[in-house]
# Entry
Amino acid sequence: GAGVSQSPSNKVTEKGKDVELRCDPISGHTALYWYRQSLGQGLEFLIYFQGNSAPDKSGLPSDRFSAERTGGSVSTLTIQRTQQEDSAVYLCASSPYRGRGYTFGSGTRLTVV
Amino acid sequence: DQQVKQNSPSLSVQEGRISILNCDYTNSMFDYFLWYKKYPAEGPTFLISISSIKDKNEDGRFTVFLNKSAKHLSLHIVPSQPGDSAVYFCAAQSGGGTASKLTFGTGTRLQVTL
# Structure
């Protein structure tokens, strides 16, 4: 696609429920990243996929968070047993293998009530 | 451990004047630096970048300066316009040209007043 597409744009869920957030990167981009921005905070790195290499999961805050990338394209970020502190805007970005910086999607605003 | 720091959470500047946003970093492995601009309810958009082999990069009204010895960079916007009002994030990257994660600062909210 022309840009990075994320869905849903907004998600309200009850505490304790699982949620899945989807990211469709720019076609041909081998690298895909997930970040989140909590209220009043900066951009916190979560996880990074590069081609067929093992993902860099060093930013995932707990084992309730996981992500996969199928076929080197679409990625899903899953949060199990959501907590109120998970409320944030979750941003996905992609970049080519050789390149600097990345293109972000518009994000998914997650609210846990 | 905040490797990229933006110590000013907000800045207010009059239209037509210069805006200067500052950023400091601690990791000497960073070799590329970027500025992103973010409007509410939108993802960050790339603004300007600079390689560590340079000390200045200019693009229209936007100039980024890098002082490697001080581990400091700044973004100058001149003249500032009301449409520049947004949150600006400084980011740093290592990796020598291949894709790698960006480390972001906490952002500076710029308000350009009439």
